[in-house]
Structure formats: C-alpha cells, structure tokens
Amino acid sequence: MPEAKKLFLSWTYSFEVLQARCNIVEDVLRYALKGAENQYDAPYAHPKAALLKADVKARMYEVFRPLVMPKNGKAMVNPAGDTNELLFAAFEEARTYAMVDQIKAIPHFSSPELTSAFGKKFFARTISMGAEVHPSVEGAFDQARANFQQCESRLVALHSLYTLVSMNQYGNVPELMGFDEIRKTLWERRQKFLRDIAMFGGLLGGHRAKAVACMLARESCHKTDPADVQYSIIQFLTADGVVPGRWSADQDEAFRKDIALKYREIDES
C-alpha cells in the first residue's frame, strides 16, 4: 500500500483553513481553464469547462458538509499542515504527470504572498497576459517562449487538481469530469507554441537557435537526467520513422552517445 499523504482539503481541518485552501483551488482551476478558452466563438470557455468546475466544486463542498452538519454537533479539527508546502508538493507531483521539465510561470494566485513564495520555490515568474511585444522576430520569439511556459504551467495546474481536491490519502482518485478534453486542448496549444519557438529561434540563429535545438532534443530524443525514462530513438534511423521489431543494442547506444555529445557541445557553447 502506498504511503499516506496529508490531504490539502479534509473535513477534519478548521473552517478558516478550508476556506483559504478552497480559494487557492479556485485560483488554480481558473488559471488552467484560461489557457483552454476558445478565442473565436462565444461562449469563449472550453466546452468542458463548466463540467470540470462543477466537479471540482462538488468535491470541495464535500469537505464542508461535516463542519456545517456534524453528526454529534461538534466538529473535529486536526492539524492541517503547511498550506504552501502541500500546494508545492501537489505541483511537483503534477509536473511529472504533465511531462513538464520545469515550472517557469507562476499561476495567477489571488494572494501576493503565495505568488512570491511560489516564484521562489520554483524559480518561476509571473507572465503578463497583456504585455506589449516589440514587432520583431526577437519579440515574437520571446512571446512564443512566454506562451509555452505559461501553457506548461497551466498543464501542471490542471494535473495538480487531482491532488488538491483528493479525499483519499492513498491515491485512486476518481477521474475529474472534462479533464481529458481540457488537457488535450492545452497540450495541443503547448505543441503549437513550441513550433513558434523553433521557427523564430531558427530565424534569429545564434544562441537562441542553439537553445531551441536543445529544447527540441529534450522534447523527443534526449533526457539530461539519467534517472528519467529515456525516449525511444531508433525510429529516427529508419524509413518512414517505423520502430522495428528488433534492433542492435550497439546501434542504439552509439546513437545515444552521439546525441548526448552534440547536445553538450551546443549547451555548453
């Protein structure tokens, strides 16, 4: 059985703690859904946004019911742990599930104190939604990178909801309604922003083109941390990109070594 984790929301916490944490969950939910909006047709919200909102709010309501209507007329109150630590742990766990290497953008929290603490924890920054961009290739590159980082943080925020509204200390959380469709939209936009980065970085050349090459390598053929699960790469050497039924381990190892060598040469230059 997996080790029990302290819940972010529990009916055994005080009303004040639950209220503050539910406000944070709503900030996280709002931040994730903003990136999945349809900019062309009203209503602009994602078609599954209302479903996800209703599911998350229903789960939050469940932790308040015993406080409002305790069976014995007296609410139980247990230590709730540190809110920031639990939130950051949820985001770190979600980062793995979202397949995001680093959290670079701070979610749009209502609390300035939480915003600051999150930025220090993850070395992240607040990315403005309405900043004026210089009309140049460099400006477009910077905006594409900001859009990519914001989208990745939104994916992590979406995944974090599973932990934040979980009522189960051991996992096996029921699926959030609308989650898959919203995640698909965010992932598709992430890929679009990545192509934008590659396009404008290539046009700029120099160190930006090198940074893009490293980013694309980390995306599909090379993990810098040996502890990470490595990608399949043999398909880059075959006709039509087909993964063969079997291949030489020596061939695979030689290819990986050459990729790692070229990556280091670019990354360190």
Secondary-structure blueprint of this entry?
Blueprint: H1 15-34, H2 49-68, H3 83-97, H4 112-122, H5 137-164, H6 179-204, H7 206-220, H8 249-267
Helix pairs in contact: 1-2, 1-5, 3-5, 5-6, 6-7, 7-8
Task: Give a structural overview.
The chain is mainly α and 269 residues long. It folds into two domains: 15-220, no CATH class; 227-269, no CATH class. The chain has helices at residues 15-34, 49-68, 83-97, 112-122, 137-164, 179-204, 206-220, 249-267. Helix 1 runs antiparallel to helix 5 and helix 3 (83-97) crosses helix 5.
What attributes characterize this protein structure?
269 residues; 2 domains; globular; mainly alpha; 0% strand
User: How large, in whole angstroms, is the Cα Rg?
Assistant: 22 Å
- Alpha carbon gap, first and last residue: 47 Å
Q: How is the biggest beta sheet arranged?
A: none
Helix/strand/pairing class, anyone? mainly alpha
Q: Low-confidence parts lasting 5 or more residues at pLDDT below 50?
A: none
The tally of structural domains comes to: 2
Order of helices and strands: HHHHHHHH
Percentage of residues in helical conformation: 55-70%
Described by the principal axes of the CA atoms, the overall outline is: globular
Regarding quaternary structure, what we see is: single chain
Relative strand content: under 5%
User: What count of helical segments does DSSP give?
Assistant: 8
DSSP E strands, number: 0
Average residue-wise pLDDT: 90
